[in-house]
Input
Amino acid sequence: MSTITLTTDFGTRDWFVGTMKGVVLAINPRASIVDIAHEIPQGDIRAGAFALMASCPHFPRGTVHVAVVDPGVGSQRRAIAVQTANGIFVGPDNGVLSWALARERIQLIRQLENARYFLKSVSRTFHGRDVFVPVAAHLSRGLPLSRLGRKLEDIVQLPWVGANRVKGNRDRKNTGGPFEVRGEVVYIDRFGNAITNIGPELSSPGKGATCEVLGTRRLRCPLADFYAAVAAGHPVAVIGSSELLEVAVNCGSAARKFGIRVGDTVVLRAKL
Amino acid sequence: MSTITLTTDFGTRDWFVGTMKGVVLAINPRASIVDIAHEIPQGDIRAGAFALMASCPHFPRGTVHVAVVDPGVGSQRRAIAVQTANGIFVGPDNGVLSWALARERIQLIRQLENARYFLKSVSRTFHGRDVFVPVAAHLSRGLPLSRLGRKLEDIVQLPWVGANRVKGNRDRKNTGGPFEVRGEVVYIDRFGNAITNIGPELSSPGKGATCEVLGTRRLRCPLADFYAAVAAGHPVAVIGSSELLEVAVNCGSAARKFGIRVGDTVVLRAKL
Amino acid sequence: MSTITLTTDFGTRDWFVGTMKGVVLAINPRASIVDIAHEIPQGDIRAGAFALMASCPHFPRGTVHVAVVDPGVGSQRRAIAVQTANGIFVGPDNGVLSWALARERIQLIRQLENARYFLKSVSRTFHGRDVFVPVAAHLSRGLPLSRLGRKLEDIVQLPWVGANRVKGNRDRKNTGGPFEVRGEVVYIDRFGNAITNIGPELSSPGKGATCEVLGTRRLRCPLADFYAAVAAGHPVAVIGSSELLEVAVNCGSAARKFGIRVGDTVVLRAKL
Output
């Protein structure tokens, strides 16, 4: 059983995703198909890249990941397949694969050119069904990437804004002294948790650390181990399940309560 | 591995669809179950018929398609299974299967009467779980349709309003001279694209064709090859992935921006 | 093929559920994973318990059911696995499993303590991915429950408010004489049907029975066999697919039309 994952902005209201699965099964009846997310906001490449990055490390080795957030479908953007030590990534070369691939050891990049592995008739508007998924289904059956098209040396990178330690010792990890880290909100999940770009190397100060979001409304809250460390309705910062600092409201929505949006500045301070 | 597809108006908020899958797996543990769509508007037989028609050609031969948009559940409407050259279609005989079947070569129609292939206790309100899905699961294991019930000669047809070439040469395909095609909007997808009943035989004029929608607000736009052929926010008509003319707004919603609704008249004009 | 079901309040907008499936497949590539419901309102243990109770009887023997509605994640609540005659139930010990288990013959209850069967790194906020699903995947491969942790004698019970026959013969079933049953609304489904706690033993009176909901607006309607027994837009009470009395509006939403909410009193009267 080979696994194929799907990450798209097609939604599940219509028949688009189901049709893609039909195409997979017509080529590889033994494929196990997993939906990662289909409600990525339309054309939001960053959100698609984040969802894929956050989920792909948990899949079995050899999984084929298909990500189709593709506002340029039908135009000149390239289509690619990327072999890594852990699996294969297929999608448009617009950055949607790049955050997941930044954590992988890339072995081979190929452009999708060989129409033999596409559907016979390729529409101009639905390459998810006609190009990406048939290629993924063939790859899941063992087709070598080299058959797909020319070798590429690099892919389009989506910029990842890094967080910075702006005060205190930047080299050592939590060895004392007050410090301050500045980052920003990169994703807001359906619970209204604001996930930031502040990773564990910057965010594990001792007791007494505070987190501040400089959004529509100013929010200041403690850093704790889990949501329920504060009373219901109160804000709290935790290291979330993606190992990034996130700002939440226990039993509520931080995004709605405080008007937080992607791009808002987040400041983490520790006195120690 | 046999494939069973599900198209319903049950939504995915509650446990209805999951329960249907449990029933399938209790009868055929090796079935591969694919959701086509579950957010069909409640009781909207046309939308269900369109989703099934648009997706079923892409599934493997032998797939069993179950469509349950069934406002008459518990009343006198018949339940049917239809064998075609490509697969089997199961659902209420209210037209929901008819658009998909219009493109298929029908081999046998049977009424679902033999309670041996239903759940032991059949509710009056959930034939998806109690009748259609158990029958489909048995069929996916090779049960002959002849065991299900009496032979039928025809099924309820949902009318398909055809588009018409109202000016110009109606017999030849794009061989010159101005022409005009009138059709209507038949489905609005989650992106707000307005899919029409104008097929490729009518809609492939040369350069300079324009499309007009006579809805709440009048919209006139060019016919192009793909969405991104116009600037973001602008309307465009393309041959969509279902091979039907559709009216879209690049990076936006045509339905919302121009108040388009199912049934609105669409006019395609070519000067040539 | 072993079946694993998932019932959560994680939604399907983000990558949470997809990631859980990746974790399952990395441990048991042959698992067949079925979504029961993921749009349980956040932290609503009663709604999760109801969905699991309503659907689990329809799954194959041996199914592993995972339910994660877990507002106390990261705090002191226990995590459990429960073996019954029909399958295995895995989740937090907060009552979310208790309604389904009330109908099962319990054979063994174990606390989830043995970190060998968790993900290597357990976050404080996503035990669905890190604890419950890896345990379920191991169980689906045949791991004995006894390896998971200490034996428990009981689990947290969610109270089930029973309906009562308040007038008439309480002992015998519909043997004559007028009677009155009082219950309450326990779940409102996506169609706006108000499902009550009045089971078939109380609700199968003869002709002429009426049902009343004492909610925001008073509603009185007949008891019938199916929704379409009344004209479109009219209210009707039926024994629903979960074998509980439910109040519906044919082709409409009873909850929206009459402002019905969970907890509203429902009275069923029969004159006979």
Notes: The CA atoms of residues 134 and 140 of chain C lie 10 Å apart.
